[in-house]
Amino acid sequence: MKNLFIALSALVLLYLVVGLFLYLRQRYFLYYPTPKIIAANYKNMFLENDNEKINIIVLNEGHENAILYFGGNAESMAQSADYIAGQFPEFTVYLMDYRGYGLSTGEASEEGLYSDALCLYDKVKAQHTRISVGGRSLGTAVATYVAANREVSKLALITPFDSIVNVAQDRYPVYPVSLLLHDKYDSKSRVKDIKAKTFIVIAENDEVIPLGRTKALINAFPKVQLQVDIIENRGHADISSDARYYKIMQDFIGER
Hints:
The termini are far apart. Strand 5, helix 5 (138-149) and strand 6 (154-158) form a beta-alpha-beta unit. This protein has 256 residues and is of the alpha/beta class. Helix 4 crosses helix 5 (138-149). Strands 1-2-4-3-5-6-7-8 form an 8-stranded mixed β-sheet, with helices on both faces. It contains 9 helices and 8 strands. It has one domain (31-254): Alpha/Beta hydrolase fold, catalytic domain (Rossmann fold, 3-Layer(aba) Sandwich), CATH 3.40.50.1820. It has helices at 2-24, 26-30, 77-87, 110-124, 138-149, 164-171, 177-180, 211-220, 243-254, and strands at 43-49, 52-59, 65-70, 92-96, 130-136, 154-158, 197-203, 226-231.
């Protein structure tokens, strides 16, 4: 009996220690700041917001229509700039370094990223007739927030999820994740406020975002509003290496 009590106590202690570790390090697992790299041949536009300087890389300046793109949690906008510029030559594209990423100051948080994204939209809106918004992985939550709070022409979501809470709960089922997480990124709750035609792209072999989490988001949209496509034989990280990926994105964003 004594040995059973000791074993149970050890398990409880281990549970609490791991839970405390996950709680204290949660933003370390969620955000992977990218290095300070200057994207050659492109303009860097700095936004002043909440006493932080947010770097925006501007591609293909001077076009009537624009795309705001929000990357994944470890995606370097400076390193992606050349390729994205070449794929959307008829659009001015704005790439945002999240707080603490690239040349931006501060520390990433849900509230901060949302605020910076709206600040970017409001800054460039007068310069363009149409603004489309795209996001990948973590960036899909930022993109849905913008689309729910501003007028958007098209919304493209690559490997999205319904909420970070649900993604984390699937990964750590023994913990009350909803009580522990600071940043919840609940995209599903914002679908009701999104009016833009929306495109969701799924990686067939996504090992980061469970398919169930993407389907939960898909099911929240009216069918008439949504287009869904699957990139076969690609995972979460290499989806953009498929030639078909940019073709379907170009067709969707460029469609009137």
